[in-house]
């Protein structure tokens, strides 16, 4: 479907659910944006057939007319807007190329603070020739004048391509730290005593689709076609990680349907983007946790990893694949609450009752589950 047709056919709606298990089941096939457990309503993006099915199941489906109108207007505005920098309709958000140019310029202007790094390659760049696709570029920010070793902070963003603001937020964070060095005491201390790794575009192929006005979430792996929706191809990179892939203890969590927005892929870590991010984390973080689900990371474990997403005002910590608490749940929750103090966001275990919904094969579960971060 053309972009305008695809977006105008979809609606933003609030849908009723009975309980957490019911919500988990829906999460495997539906595009859930936000959950209100108090009212037992979830905000979703739905196609007309999905609206009909949900209503036939006896659920209350209330269309948000204003949000739906804004969604439908985006691809039309994107097509009409001349290319003058930034994403059409969102000129303050940099494109993939502009993001990478910013990172490269930071490294040129501040070689004592910024080191460029190529984390890996996208699906299209691995599977096609002729320069198609993109690398996954990042930067390492730290003062070269002060030797290490230093604790590592890794910020990755835009693994879901349509979450446009996350790549921009990560890029501006890098700019703020570098420009604040020697001026702002917090930025100076962070770069003196921490190695900060930032990868703003971890799904660059998918991001280019989203920049055109498509509401694209996955990568662009089209090895499995979607006959009824050509724009439905791809794999959800945040369901494809190797830790607990397709091992959710509840219904839903990820999908085996190649056309689903939460399609987990044919096998664990099948996608080059996921392989690259996992290899990079293994390289920058020590393995600080044993192989059993019950093994704890030590109290003095070093390192922080944040996967930046947009829309729901939540700070989520592992586990996502089970409702059972992680061995280091108290420490993870405490760290999350520190973040939440500054943002005002709610803090909860992503897979727990009353938080969001269960997920498997996610990057944060991988970081904690395999490395204890």
In short:
This protein has 373 residues and is α/β, with parallel strands linked by helices.
What does this structure look like?
With 373 residues, this protein is of the alpha/beta class. It folds into 2 domains: 1-80, Alpha-Beta Plaits (2-Layer Sandwich), CATH 3.30.70; 96-208 and 269-371, Aminopeptidase. Helix content is 35%, strand content 16%. It is built from 12 helices and 11 strands. The strands form 3 sheets. A 5-stranded mixed β-sheet has the order 5-6-8-7-9, sandwiched between helices. Helix 10 runs parallel beside helix 12. The radius of gyration is 20 Å and the shape is globular. The chain starts with a helix and ends with a helix. Mean pLDDT is 92; it is low at 1-7.
Task: Provide key terms for this protein.
disordered N terminus, globular, 11 strands, Aminopeptidase, 12 helices, Alpha-Beta Plaits, 5-stranded mixed β-sheet, 2 domains, alpha/beta, 373 residues, 4-stranded antiparallel β-sheet
Secondary structure layout plus pairing:
Blueprint: H1 3-9, E1 11-16, H2 20-27, E2 31-36, E3 41-46, H3 48-56, E4 61-63, H4 65-80, H5 96-109, E5 114-121, H6 123-127, E6 135-141, E7 152-157, H7 164-180, H8 185-193, E8 195-199, H9 204-211, H10 272-284, E9 304-308, E10 314-317, H11 329-343, E11 346-349, H12 363-371
Parallel strand pairs: 7-8, 7-9, 10-11
Antiparallel strand pairs: 1-3, 1-4, 2-3, 5-6, 6-8
């Amino acid at each position: 479907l053309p972009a305008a047709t695809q977006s105008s056919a979809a609606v933003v709606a609030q849908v009723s659910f009975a309980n957490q298990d019911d919500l988990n089941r829906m999460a495997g096939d539906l595009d859930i944006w936000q959950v209100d457990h108090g009212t037992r309503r979830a905000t979703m993006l739905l196609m007309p057939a999905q609206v009909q099915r949900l209503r036939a199941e006896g659920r209350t489906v209330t269309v948000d007319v204003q949000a739906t109108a804004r969604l439908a207007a985006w691809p039309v505005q994107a097509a009409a807007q001349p290319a003058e920098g930034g994403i059409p309709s969102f000129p303050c958000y940099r494109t993939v190329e502009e993001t990478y140019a910013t990172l490269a310029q930071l490294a040129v202007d501040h070689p004592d603070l910024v080191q460029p790094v190529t984390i890996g390659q996208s699906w299209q760049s691995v599977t096609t020739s002729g320069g198609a696709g993109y690398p996954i570029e990042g930067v390492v920010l730290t003062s070269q004048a002060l030797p290490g070793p230093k604790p590592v902070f890794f910020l990755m963003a835009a693994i879901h391509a349509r979450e446009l603001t996350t790549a921009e937020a990560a890029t501006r964070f890098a700019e703020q730290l570098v420009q604040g060095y020697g001026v702002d005491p917090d930025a100076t201390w962070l770069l003196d005593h921490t190695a900060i790794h930032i990868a703003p575009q971890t799904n660059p192929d998918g991001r280019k689709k989203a920049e055109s006005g498509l509401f694209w979430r996955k990568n662009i792996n089209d090895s499995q076609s979607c006959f009824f929706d050509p724009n439905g191809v791809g794999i959800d990179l945040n369901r494809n990680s190797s830790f607990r892939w397709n091992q959710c203890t509840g219904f839903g969590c990820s999908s085996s349907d190649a056309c689903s927005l939460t399609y987990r892929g044919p096998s664990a870590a099948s996608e080059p983007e996921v392989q690259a991010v996992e290899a990079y984390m293994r390289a920058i973080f020590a393995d600080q946790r044993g192989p059993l689900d019950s093994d704890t990371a030590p109290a003095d474990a070093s390192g922080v990893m944040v996967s930046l997403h947009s829309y729901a005002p939540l700070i989520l910590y592992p586990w996502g694949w089970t409702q059972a608490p992680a061995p280091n749940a108290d420490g993870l929750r405490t760290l999350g609450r520190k973040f939440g103090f500054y943002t005002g966001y709610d803090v909860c275990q992503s897979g727990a009752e009353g938080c969001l919904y269960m997920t498997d094969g996610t990057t944060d579960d991988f970081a904690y589950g395999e490395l204890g971060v």
